[in-house]
TrEMBL record:
InterPro entries: SAM-dependent_MTases_sf (IPR029063). PANTHER family: TRANS-ACONITATE 2-METHYLTRANSFERASE-RELATED (PTHR43861). Gene3D superfamilies: Vaccinia Virus protein VP39. Keywords: Methyltransferase, Transferase. GO terms for biological process: methylation. CDD domains: AdoMet_MTases (cd02440). The lineage of its organism: Bacteria, Pseudomonadati, Bacteroidota, Sphingobacteriia, Sphingobacteriales. This is Methyltransferase domain-containing protein.
Length: 309
């Protein structure tokens, strides 16, 4: 057996994971590291692009029209944003609350698809938002400086961002250590990097190879806090905070795979939990998830990294 691509410790025995999002049921070998606990794919398929059909991407998500704030509101933009952190508002303010990113800060969303999130953030008052995605056909320019680049991180200007975000992107990267070094280069001193990823937790213990977040072969690494600390440290980051944000999805999604039901239906749409589970069952799953999050055992988390040195 080989060694861990993160910490170089020994990998445990290989086990096959089926491709179940599309439902091809092809098998891919994964193994868990005996040191850092990361579950990883052993061989990345050469045709990995085929496992990302068009409808997988956020390309067709509806992009909101940009609304520029009136001048007097733009002048007080940071004060307005600080107020929004105090409210129980949208998801994005919840993600950003621990680092209190300001409206004037320069933000880059990495792996952003067509840029729906940055457009929404602009409309919430963030004035300096961009995105990049290597896998889109071409870039986008939405006006007001809101742009999506089709670029690798190494092609962007160094020390130019206050905040970088990766929302469920990092687990798809074949060389996470190298991507973190590129992130470090892009950030201003003391800049932040937010990484939202699935993590090895209780759902793995319960469902093993049916755990929906294994998502073979698209997810190359299912990280742990230990593996993230190693990667962060090597790239010149410290992890300030880890917040678990798992949901009922870890239960209802994995239950579907256990019953051999792919995530995408015959019409190439994602299945809805309400078609398979009662409101009571889903409420129960949601409560279980919030309990696991409190115990730091949920199957997804937000890592807050700060650039050091
Ligand atoms: Zn390891």
């Amino acid at each position: 057996m080989g060694n861990c691509k993160i910490c170089d410790d020994k990998l445990g025995d290989a086990f096959p994971i089926r491709e179940m999002m599309l439902g091809t049921r092809e098998e891919f070998n994964y193994a868990q590291c005996t040191g850092c606990g990361t579950i990883q794919i052993l061989n990345i398929p050469g045709n990995i692009g085929n496992y990302y059909p068009n409808y997988y991407y956020s390309f067709h998500h509806k992009i909101p029209a940009l609304i520029q704030l009136p001048l007097f509101k733009r002048i007080f933009k940071d004060i307005r944003i600080k107020k929004k952190y105090r409210q129980k508002d949208t998801d994005i303010f919840n993600y950003l609350r621990p680092i209190q990113t300001l409206a004037s800060h320069k933000i880059l969303d990495i792996g952003c698809g067509s840029g729906k999130l940055i457009c929404e953030m602009f409309n919430l008052g963030f004035q300096n938002v961009q995105g990049t995605d290597k896998f889109i056909e071409a870039g986008y320019d939405y006006g007001y400086g809101v742009k999506v680049f089709k670029k690798d991180l190494s092609e962007l200007k160094k020390k130019s961002y206050n905040l970088l975000m990766m929302h469920h992107v990092f687990e798809h990267m074949d060389n996470p250590a190298e991507e973190l070094v590129k992130c470090h280069r892009l950030l201003k001193d003391d800049g932040h990097l937010i990484i939202r990823i699935p993590v090895v937790g209780k759902a793995w213990d319960i469902y093993k190879t049916d755990w929906i977040q294994l998502d073979a072969p698209r997810h190359f690494f299912l990280h742990t806090v230990a593996s993230m600390k190693i990667l962060a440290g090597k790239a010149g980051f410290v992890i300030d905070n880890v917040i678990y944000d798992s949901t009922a999805f870890q239960f209802w999604g994995s239950e579907l795979y256990k019953r051999d039901i792919p995530f995408v239906n015959e019409n190439k749409e994602y299945r809805l939990p309400t078609d398979y589970y009662s409101t009571e069952e889903l409420d129960n799953y949601e409560q279980l998830a919030s309990g696991l999050n409190k115990e730091q055992q949920g199957d997804s988390a937000i890592f807050y990294l700060t650039k050091r040195r």
